[in-house]
Amino acid sequence: MGLIHNLLVGIIHLVFVAMDILVIMVLVKVVYDRWQIEFLKHIANAIEPVINTVTTSAGKLAMTITGKSYPQKTLLVLLLFSMWIIRLIISSLI
Predict the structure, then answer these.
(1) What are phi and psi of 67, to 5 degrees?
(2) CA-CA distance, 90 to 28, in Å (whole number)?
(3) Taking the model in full, what pTM does it have?
(4) Does pLDDT of 20 surpass 80?
(5) Buried b / exposed e along 40-50 (16+ C-beta atoms within 10 A)
(6) What is the DSSP letter of 58?
(7) Cα–Cα distance list, 13 to 30, 60, 67, 77, 92 (Å)
(8) What is the full DSSP assignment across 15-34?
(9) What pLDDT is attached to residue 41?
(10) CA dist 29 to 22, 45, 72, 81, Å?
(11) pLDDT band at 94, cuts 50/70/90?
């Protein structure tokens, strides 16, 4: 029984790491779009396809739930908020 629990905890930690990486990507994108910091240009260009994929998926989900379409910046804020809520739910279940 301990093996299954440890396996689930390991998977949950990997999910948290993936969420942290996605949050860092979103923050780099938002900071670069706002202030145009030069050394973030190449990083922002490299993560642009990932951000576009995530925001289109979030946009489709938001469209089916609310019936409205949202701009990319609003979708990024909604994505960050939903990941924070998911993290709270998962960590309360552990």
Answers:
(1) 85, 10
(2) 25
(3) 0.86
(4) yes
(5) beebbeebeee
(6) H
(7) 26, 27, 34, 23, 14
(8) HHHHHHHHHHHHHHHHHHHH
(9) 95
(10) 11, 9, 11, 16
(11) confident
Q: 13, 27, 15, 12: which is closest to 80 by C-alpha? A: 27
Residue with tokens 């946009």: 59
pLDDT in tens, 36-89: 999 999 999 999 999 999 999 999 999 999 999 999 999 999 999 999 999 999
Q: How far, in Å, CA of 27 to CA of 24, rounded? A: 5
At 15 the pLDDT is: 93
